[in-house]
From TrEMBL:
It comes from the Bacteria. This is Glyoxalase. Pfam families: Glyoxalase. It comes from Alkalilimnicola ehrlichii. The lineage of its organism: Bacteria, Pseudomonadati, Pseudomonadota, Gammaproteobacteria, Chromatiales. PANTHER family: BLR2520 PROTEIN. Residues 4-126 form the VOC domain. InterPro entries: Glyas_Bleomycin-R_OHBP_Dase, Glyas_Fos-R_dOase_dom, VOC_core.
Length: 137
């Protein structure tokens, strides 16, 4: 297997609410897609939103899940100020800030928010992780 993640698909309870959160709240660029799914481009990969029950059925698993899911998505930015700005944008879009941004033990600066379905996003400035021109707008 070649190391790459082509798409991250989140099973969501309310597709319209999640589309609004990601498209209007976080300003992710939405692609044309069928009405029962939404795709967003993420600089080298895609984010997919799909009904939670439908995604579980597609994977032949149960849709019931409680508590911490065991993973977090990460968004690395170029500065501490940008971490604060992204967290503020997420909060104004309806996210819950689960951990305010602070200096980290590994020499960076990071905080967390959860989206309307509870998916965790870390927003971090890592001075050892290059955020290059392709990542900047």
């Amino acid at each position: 297997m070649k190391p790459r993640i082509s798409m991250i698909t989140l099973g969501v309870r309310d597709l319209a609410q999640s589309v609004t959160f990601y498209e209007q709240g976080l300003n992710l660029p939405r692609m044309d897609s069928p009405p029962d799914v939404a795709f967003f481009t993420l600089n080298g990969t895609w984010l997919g939103l799909y009904g939670r029950e439908a995604l579980a059925a597609d994977a032949a698993v149960t849709a019931e899940s409680h508590g911490f899911s065991g993973f977090a998505l990460a968004h690395n930015v170029a500065s501490e100020a940008e971490v604060d700005a992204v967290l503020a944008q997420a909060a104004s879009a309806g996210a819950t800030i689960t951990k305010a941004a602070e200096k980290t033990s590994w020499g960076g600066y990071a905080g967390y928010f959860s989206d309307p379905d509870g998916y965790l996003w870390e927003v971090a400035h890592n001075p050892f992780f290059w955020v290059g021109p392709a990542d900047e707008e």
